[in-house]
Amino acid sequence: MSNRYAIILAAGQGTRMKSKLYKVLHPVCGKPMVQHVIDHVNQLQIEDIVTVIGHGAEKVQEQLGDLCKYALQDQQLGTAHAVMQAESALSGKSGTTLVICGDTPLIKAETMEELIALHERSQAKATILTAYADNPTGYGRVLRGEGGLVEKIVEHKDASDEERYVKEINTGTYCFDNQALFSALKKVSNENVQGEYYLPDVIEILKQEGETVTAFQSNDFEETLGVNDRVALSQAEQILRKRINELHMRNGVTIIDPLTTFIEADVQIGQDTIINPGSSIKGNSVIGQDCLIGPNTEISNCEIGDGTEIFQSVVHESMIGSAVKIGPFAHVRPNSDIHDSVKIGNFVEIKKAVFGKGSKASHLSYIGDAEVGENVNIGCGSITVNYDGKNKYLTKIEDNVFIGCNSNLVAPVTIGEGAYVAAGSTITQNVPQEALSVARARQVNKEDYVKKLKFNK
Ligand code: UD1
Ligand code: MG
Question: What digits encode the pLDDT tens for the residues 44-55?
Answer without folding.
Answer: 999 999 999 999
